[in-house]
Amino acid sequence: MGEAAGVTGAVETGVREDRAAHGGDGGGWDDGPLSRTARVLDGVRAYRLIVAMWIRSTMAYRASFAMTTFGNFVATALDFLTIVLMFSQIDSLGGYSLPEIAFLYGLSSTAFGIADLVVGSMDRLGRRVRDGTLDTLLVRPAPVLAQVAADRFALRRLGRITQGLLVLGYALLALDDVHWTVLKVLLVPVMMVSGGAIFCAVFVGGAAFQFVARDAAEVQSAFTYGGATLLQYPPGLFAQDLVRGVTFVFPLAFVNWLPALYVLGRPYPLDLPEWVAFLPPVVAAGCCALAGLAWRAGLRSYRSTGS
Amino acid sequence: MEPFVESFIELDGVEKVFDVRKKTGFMRSERREVRAVDSISFRVARGEMVGYIGPNGAGKSTTIKMLTGILTPSGGRLRVAGIDPSRERTRLARRIGVVFGQRTTLWWDLPLIDSYRLMHRMYRIPDARYKENLDRCVELLELADLLDVPVRQLSLGQRMRGDIAAALLHDPEVLYLDEPTIGLDVISKARVREFLRDLNTERGTTVLLTTHDLQDIEQLCSRVMVIDHGRLMYDGPLTGLHEVGDSERTLVVDLERELPPIEVPSARVVRVEGPRQWLAFPASESAAPLVARIAAEYPLVDLSVREPDIEAVIAKMYADRTSGSLA
Amino acid sequence: MGSGRLYAAVAAGGFRRYATYRAATLAGVFTNTVFGVILAYTYIALWDERPHLGGYDQSQALTYVWLGQALLMTMCVMGAGFEEELIERIRTGDIAIDLYRPADLQLWWLAQDLGRAMFHLLGRGLIPVAFGAWAFDLTLPTSVLPWLSFLVAVVLGVVVSYGIRFLVSLAAFWLLDGAGIIQMAWLAGVFCSGMVLPLNVFPGVLGEIVRALPWAALIQAPADVLMGEADPVGTYAFQAGWAVALLAAGRAVQAVATRRVVVQGG
Predict the structure, then answer these.
(1) CA of B159: how far to CAs of B65, B216, C154, in Å?
(2) Nearest residue on chain A to B65, judged by CA atoms?
(3) Which of A12, B90, B268, C218 is most buried (CB neighbours < 10 A)?
(4) pLDDT average, residue stretch A35-62
(5) B100 in a domain, yes or no?
(6) Which residue from A minimizes the CA distance to B88?
(7) Quick check: C201 and A85 CB within 8 A?
């Protein structure tokens, strides 16, 4: 149980951010601030309990866990392997060196990995709605969001986080052109956590979408996996419209692009003031709040129309 | 009219309307309103064991879903223990237990005991209470050998017993069962019924049972509600139901040889096939004197009694009735 | 020719079955298009650095991207398709029913898969390529012959892909948990088929190995045929060779597995 507590402790920080904004189920009338906090705490507690159960169950088969985690590691490292292969033929991509791209990649991959670990199972919601098994969650004294997020918690997803961190580590060691300030150093972990929160919001939003469009779950992967892939590369590669869209409409640019380019001392393709690079936590909170609203609307709609 | 008493379960004019879209062409579809529950009112007092029956699509499951907070009603007033399930779902969830016949509330891939451990914590059951309840359920439902088995490897009967235990670990005040004996073999059905009977008489747990199986009702419930097309057709004792529905049981008689239709008062022959004849007689009457008459006057080889199926009872009731319900 | 008609019917059934998933298909087309866009811009930057990388010019590279996205589902590069179903049927023992059918098991599933592949080619292939042609500067042939050659290569590619997946399904049968094998096949599929990077770009020995593997027949081969970068006949020989080898291996494993199933009774 100690092992499980350690992991869930580490995971909790990521959870608290999005819980604070959107814990609980839809349609409740207990609106006072006290009961909202109570609902959030309820959600966190339920999440921890369910996750602890899955972790315990996973660890009962150590060998299988090790293999699947390694498999996850290799599968996710594939993207970086592709970049390495590219660099076997070229020296810079869009004017960026391999360490610089690795920096972007490491941040994107780690942030996505965190979200994938914490709430990645949410993309199964569509299936649950179709099966009718969502009802069994509604009967329990815990917020539905927490239960869905914790469902089938896959510890093997640590593999993706690990490879992301390794690539980031390589980048930090290999980068030689960066003038490191205290602000820049602090920005790195902030990026990972806020980036993780933003991706969590995308997952939750995608799940909310599945209440309405059950068969179209794949649209979500365009935004989650597509988004993560997009962010591995420098923004300069892409058309201005795409960059604008990802900065102002669907703010994935705040996961790593904006803050990372500030760290690298590189200009951003759009004309934006420098302090924008410090907005990720704010954007993350906003995204989580929106995702929470979307979730509540989706759940309310489900409870009105059934399955 | 009964004096106003605050009951445990209260439904007043509860409605549930669905918007159903049907595809009528390539890109066209038409919308239709389906009143799954059409202004239902009833009261259930603490400790009652009530049957809730009706044909498929009558609105049974929809009612249960509204009672448990899964669905929000379109209209009317619904309270369980004074709580509105659609508004305070989690607060109510601690006090209710639900068993879905066709889906499990347990975690599919994990051993049974893991689900129970999780419920222990999730429902905040005090340790001593949890242990006591678990031991009781394990003993009465014979789960001892199954605790370490993953739920997906359990047979239907075993899983059902596991589900019932899961629903009771936290001492719920009311237990909802949605088709609990569906697909079970005779022995499992008997076990489950016995368990439920004891639960109600010893612990005073309110039980609301929806089922397709009239036998479940006959063996367990003193009161039965019949729902059809979303409306409450009948609410009262089971015997009354047979009277109201004029339902008939069937006596299947195997004679030694082919004979003209048997003639006995209070029964009529509905079908003849060779030496076998089907006789219909009122369900409220005992079969014994009829059997004795036939055995005395005809060369009887074998016979069996068929119960009226619920669809026939309801259909007959619906055809006879023009409005409202009997209280 | 009775069996011919039978298999044609099975193929038609496969086509129809997948055609019912309208929303899912549209969602898939959207996802394919998004990934196509991301890859396209990446390749633009790549080919800006090395204008003749892998023997392609930039326009051909972009064409490759969109062909890859179009063929992704057709070739079931990431697995999916019939595998899970077949694995389930083996595990539950239902496979015994299939073996009693008056049709060859391997060919039966192949016919069904071809039907599915044709649907995916049309349903998920046309729109991404059309979008790619509109949004980017592609090199698509204007005469009919290259397209016909392309179609032949696609069909052969589907058979090769089927052969791989059939073996993977049977392999999963031997192991307790099929997920590991499926994941490895997914990895190999994505990497070795040229989905992430054209195989012609892979450097040195790695490149040579990867171009000889069966996965090269899935995306790289048809794309090169369409763009006129490879000799059709040679490509067909390569594809057919792997197809035959994989199907034969599949039959051999199937025979062993069948004996096991019959003996164990599922």
Answers:
(1) 21, 19, 48
(2) A135
(3) C218
(4) 90
(5) yes
(6) A28
(7) yes
- Kindly state whether residues B18 and B157 are assigned to the same domain: yes
Rg (CA), chain A: 20
Query: How far lies C85's CA from each of B40, B163, C165, C184, C222, in Å?
Result: 45, 29, 12, 18, 28
Asked if A252 and A227 count as a contact pair (C-beta separation under 8 A), the reply is yes
CATH label of the domain that carries residue B216: 3.40.50.300
For chain B, the domain total comes to: 2
- Pairing between β-strand B174-178 and β-strand B96-100 as defined by DSSP bridges: parallel
Q: Say whether both B179 and B81 belong to one domain.
A: yes
Set of chain A residues whose Cβ sits within 8 Å of the Cβ of B121: 49
Phi/psi region, residue A144 (left: phi>0; alpha: psi -120 to 50; beta: rest), is alpha
Residue A48 has pLDDT above 90, yes or no: yes
Look up the domain containing C62 and give its range: 2-264
Greatest alpha-carbon pair distance for chain A in Å reads 61
pLDDT digit string, tens, across residues A189-198: 999 999 999 9
Residue-wise pLDDT tens digits, A77-88: 999 999 999 999
Task: Supply the pLDDT for residue A307.
Answer: 66
Summarised one tens digit per residue, pLDDT across range A198-213 is 999 999 999 999 888 8
CB neighbour list of residue A303: distance below 8 Å, 6 or more residues apart:
A26, A27, A138, B69, B70, B71, B72, B86
Q: Which of A36, A206, A176 is nearest to A116 (CA)?
A: A206
CA atoms of C160 and C154, how far apart (whole Å): 10
pLDDT tier for residue C88 given thresholds of 50, 70 and 90 = confident
Interface-testing mutation among A65, A79, A88, A252, with chain C (most C C-beta atoms within 10 A): A88
Taking residues C155-171, what's their average pLDDT? 91
Q: At what angle do helices C58-74 and C105-135 cross, to 10 degrees?
A: 140
Residue B92 has pLDDT above 90, yes or no: yes
Q: What pLDDT does residue C103 have?
A: 76
Question: Quick count: other Cβ atoms within 10 Å of Cβ A11?
Answer: 19
Q: What is the ipTM of this complex?
A: 0.85
CB contact under 8 A, C50 and A89: yes
Q: Are residues B42 and B74 located together in one domain of the fold?
A: yes
Amino acid at B155: S
Structural domain ending residue among the three candidates B243, B273, B288 = B243
CB atoms inside a 10 Å sphere around CB C266: 12
Domain assignments of chain A as residue spans, ordered by start: 2-305
Q: Which residues of C touch A82 (CB under 8 A)?
A: 196-197
| Residue B33 shares a structural domain with residue B145 | yes
Tell me the whole-structure pTM to 2 decimals.
Answer: 0.85
Look at residue B83 and tell me whether its pLDDT is greater than 80.
yes
Domain that holds residue B302: 248-307
Is the same domain home to B53 and B192? yes
Q: Are B254 and B177 in the same domain?
A: no
Question: Going by C-beta distance under 8 Å and a sequence separation of 6 or more, which residues neighbour residue B146?
Answer: B112, B154, B158, B162
Place of tokens 């619920």: B310
The span from the CA of C262 to the CA of C266, in Å, is 7
Q: Note the pLDDT tens digit of each residue in B109-129.
A: 899 999 999 999 999 999 999
